[in-house]
Each structure stands twice: as structure tokens, then as C-alpha cells.
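Render Probable peptidoglycan glycosyltransferase FtsW in 3D.
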Amino acid sequence: MTAVREAPERSAAPAPPRARLADHVRGWFSQVRRLLGLPVASYYLILFAVLVLTGFGLVMVLSASSITSYDGGKGSSFSIVARQGAFALGGLALMFACSRAPVRLWQALAPWAMAGGLIIQVLPLLPGLGATVNGNRSWIHLGSLQLQPAEFVKLALALFLGAFLGRRIGQLTRLRALLPIVLTVGASVGLVLLGHDLGTGIILMLTAAGALFVGGLRKRYLLLFGAGAVALVGAMVLTSANRMSRIQAVITGHATEGGDSLGDHWQSDHGLYALASGGWTGVGLGASREKWSWLPEAHNDFIFAIVGEELGLLGTFAVIGVFVILACGLVRVICRTSDRMVQATTGGIFLWIIGQAAVNIGVVCGILPVIGVPLPFVSYGGSSLISTLLAAGIVLSFARAEPGAAEALRRRGASVRASLSIFARQPRGN
């Protein structure tokens, strides 16, 4: 009999590159969905974004302020960033301390924080104590330091509105019941506007809008508040030739009148020059030309322009991406709790930090008129950095209160301590 030859087994044909790429993408999205489903996802999203932005801000403050710092007579390129580093260390310590506090503590502290915020906001208006910076009387002197009380009023306002709405949302059916909200928001914004700081006043309005919207205030009352805010901002703009000039520059697309490069809109021009010269990847970290006394407030309100110049379009997209991560963490906190106080307070903090970041970036890009608000966590400024880190700590405490989050964090901490104890018990070599 003749032997029957078996046909050799054929190996499976390799998948085409496009199919392999699709498999990798599906696997990546599957891992992302799994991670976002963890009870500690909100906590780590917010913590990651805040730490990255704060650390990146220190690097950019050093780069943007090195020339100004050295030329300021201090003989050191590190004097400004050293102060910012001290603010960052103190703010991070406060953030982690606040993250361990229970939610009921913030409910109890809210009215006292609001009262204290209004009191310190009066201080810049007092003769001999208040200081005028760039035309705004919104600062007070504390020895060698300057404090901007309005930065802490933003946090106090978000906390107060959150606590108020958490207790009385079912009772706010008449305008008379809204009197505490009207008086508090009106006093907060009014005291800031008395110091001619319209930019900070707008951010306070955004903070209130976020808290009231997420807190469940009726739509007709929200529209009424919105109309009042628009009317107030319009009156402040129409009565100021300087503000009208800034708006005209944005509308017409000409940052200076008559082609005068030394005109009133020097800062806007050079912010755009910095972004335009950065290209895709930038001129290199530390290699900015605009920071050589060409761009005013390069390490403060216009630090995003230096990011674009030194790190390019990709660097600016990376910064925006981290803010998107922070926004996702804040929205996740709002969606995963039924506590109205937590929802409203987080909503106010969301529109404060994310809204202020959007306004700052819009100003630098020439989309909005210059209104003088810093980029949260990144721009130089102790008051802004500490207040935003405090707000992050409060939201982290809300994230710890999500179902299952506290237990998961305790297990993670116990495993880390166990690992460290193993290393501590290792015998030392001779």
C-alpha cells in the first residue's frame, strides 16, 4: 500500500497592519475604561493634573522670569522662582491636609469662610494698606509680600453657594428666598469692581454661575442672574476708554493703531509674536526671545505665550490636555455623588479654574481682550497658586468620599507601608 502523505499545515496569515493597529487602539480604550471605572479614578485624575500643572508651572516660571529676575537688581535668575517654589510647597501641604478633611467640615466652615473673604476683600480699599498694581487696587501689603484677597474670595464663594444650595435648594421657589445669594454674590463682585479689577470680577461671576447651575437653581433665575451680569460687565466696559480700546483691537484684528509697534497693545502684539515664532516644536526650553523685556508679564498673565514660543504648538496642546484631564476629574466628582453641596461647590470650582484657564488662553491667543487673569497653577503668583491648591484639596476630599474610594485608598496606603517595612527590615551588609 502506498503511504498517504499528509498535507503540511498552513500557518495563519499575519493580520494586516491596519487591523493590528485597530486591535491596539481597542485594547487601549478598554484599559482606559477599566481604569475610569475604578472608585479612585476621580481622585487620581485630579491629583495627577494638579501635580503636573504645578510642577510644569515652576519650570516655566523659571524660564520666563530668569531675565527679569536678574535684571531687577537681585543679581540672581532664581529669586522669582524661589518665591514661587515656596508658595508651591506651602500650597501642596495645605492641599494634602484639606484632602483628608470630611465633607461635613466644609459644610460647617462655608459661612465663616465667606464672611472672612468679604472682610479681607475690603482691605485693599483702605488707604495706606491697599496697593495698586497695573491699575487695579486689589492687593494688600504684608511685609515684603503682597496678597490678592479676591483669589480666596473665589474659593469662599464656591463653598458658601454649595453649602447654601445643599441645605435650601427645595426652598428656592421665590425671589425673596434668593436674597442671601444675591447679597453674597453682589458683595463679592462689587468689592472687586470697586478696585477696578473687571477680570477678577468676571471670574467670580463664572464661579457663582457654575455653583448655581450645577446646584439646581431654576432656569428663570439663572437667566435673570445672567442678564444682570451681562448688564454690569457692559456698563463697566462702556464707561472705560481703555477697555473699549482692548475690545476694538480684538474685533478689528489690529493690535495697534496706525501700525505703531509702540502703541497701547504692545503686550497683545508680543504675545502673538511669541506664539507665532514657536512653530510646531518651539525654539527650545529657556530659549525664548520675548522674555528679554519684550513681553510684559511674561511669567504671569502671559506665561502661555512663553510656553508656545519655547515648546511650540505641541507644548500648548499638552498643557490644554492636562486641563482637560482636570476637567474630566471634576465632572466625574459631580456625576458620582448625590450630595448637592458637593455638586454645587465642585461646579463653582470647575468654572473658576477651567473657565479662568480658557479666558487666559483666549487672551494670549488674541481671541479675547486683555483682562489680566493668570493661568491657574502655572502663572507666577502666590495668592493664585495657594487658593487653587486649596480648592484642589477640597475637591480631593470630595473625591475620597465617593463610594468605595476611601477603602481603596486605605488599601493602597497599607500596601505601600507594607512594602516600605520590608525594605526597612532588610539586614545591612558589612
